[in-house]
Amino acid sequence: MIEKVKKILMGLAMGTLFPSLIMAGNIELLGAGATFPYPLYTKMFDVYYNTTGVKVNYQSIGSGGGQRQLLNKTVDFGASDAFMTDEQLKNAPAEILHIPICLGAVVPTYNLPGEPELKFTPEILADIFLGKIVKWNDERIASVNPGISLPDMSIIVVHRSDGSGTTFIWTDYLSKVSNEWKEKVGAGTSVNWPVGIGGKGNEGVSGLVKQIPGSIGYVELIYALNNNMPVGIVKNKKGKFVKPSIETVSLAASTNLPDDTRVSITDTDAPDGYPVSGFTWILVYKEQNYGGRSREKAEALVKLLWWMIHDGQKYTKELHYAPLPRNAVLKAEKIIKSITYNGKNILQ
């Protein structure tokens, strides 16, 4: 009975912002994209449905797929860990907005006997993924991991096979720390990998690494933790070896945020920040009256986004994501308030 009263009160409270949408239980929103925040979105959307009756169907297909489906207007929102470029936005059918939802860490994870906790320099990571370091007992790896017995095993690189924001964060980082990587491979949601085998989604990469002895891959932190896999400690720009965590990812985000929130925070200047960190965004059209969409559905989407950057943030830390810093919440609020239906702001 108490829970029912809470739901009613919440609906009435939201009605002050969305007078024509109170507990719209017949609404279903469709989203697709990043696998990076999938565990968080699964939790958020389940709680949101149980609270409001609004169902959110989210397909974890990778950031590239999320962007494509939004451009094709087959979903209500896309999700991406890679912000769209100026050229992509220019070629889009209408203005697209980026709403930051949280931050996370992309981590090196590997399959070695005894599961040692290894340290990696930026140069070592770049050379492993370039195929230049091919054995685990290479002297460069051994030099930063004294006291750890490294096996005489071949290194098997595992990377994403799909268009991926996790790949964007990883390759964006490698491009910043390695000129050779930048020139030969570059950064993107999908790149021509010099070596390795591909897995679909964070799930696929973590699954392959767990199955293949001697392998190394990159995944969002929660996928490594959920699979009880070791996580590498990475040397940052200030020369400190930093373990990925909520705190060190939050420190990496201590930066000036542009109004559109499209920013890379890899290779952070923060002395204690984890260097392979990034935001993840929900992507929506600014003008919501398209493709026969009803105002009710547009209001439901805006209401969901507002909840995600406020009440939904309480679910970030338990799933090893960093919540939005205050400056990002303020920017996100402004962006959500700019969403329109027939040219008029939905959120009054």
What features would you describe in this structure?
With 348 residues, this protein is an alpha/beta fold. Helix content is 36%, strand content 19%. The chain has two domains: 2-104 and 279-345, D-Maltodextrin-Binding Protein, domain 2; 105-277, 3-Layer(aba) Sandwich (D-Maltodextrin-Binding Protein, domain 2), CATH 3.40.190.10. The protein has helices at 2-15, 38-52, 63-71, 86-91, 122-129, 139-143, 165-177, 179-184, 201-211, 221-226, 246-252, 295-309, 326-337; strands at 28-33, 55-60, 77-80, 96-110, 119-120, 156-160, 197-199, 215-220, 233-235, 241-242, 277-285, 340-341, 344-345. The relative contact order is 0.18.
Short description:
With 348 residues, this protein is of the alpha/beta class. Helices cover 36% and strands 19% of the residues.
What is the distance, rounded to the nearest whole angstrom, between the alpha carbons of the first and last residues?
32 Å
Cross-sheet strand order for the largest sheet:
2-1-3-11-4-8-6-7
Cα-atom radius of gyration: 21 Å
The pLDDT mean sits at 92
Q: How does the major sheet shape up?
A: 8 strands, mixed
Which CATH-level-2 architecture of the largest domain?
A: 3-Layer(aba) Sandwich
Number of domains: 2
- The helicity comes to 25-40%
In percent, how much strand structure appears in the residues?
15-25%
**Could you state the CATH homologous superfamily of the largest domain?**
Periplasmic binding protein-like II
Which shape, going by the Cα principal axes? elongated
- Specify the structural class: alpha/beta
Q: What is the string of helix and strand elements?
A: HEHEHEHEEHHEHHEHEHEEHEHHEE
Helix count equals 13
Weakly predicted, low-confidence segments:
1-24
CATH class of the largest domain: Alpha Beta
Number of strands: 13
Instruction: Please identify the oligomeric state.
Output: single chain
Query: What do we call the CATH topology of the largest domain?
Result: D-Maltodextrin-Binding Protein, domain 2
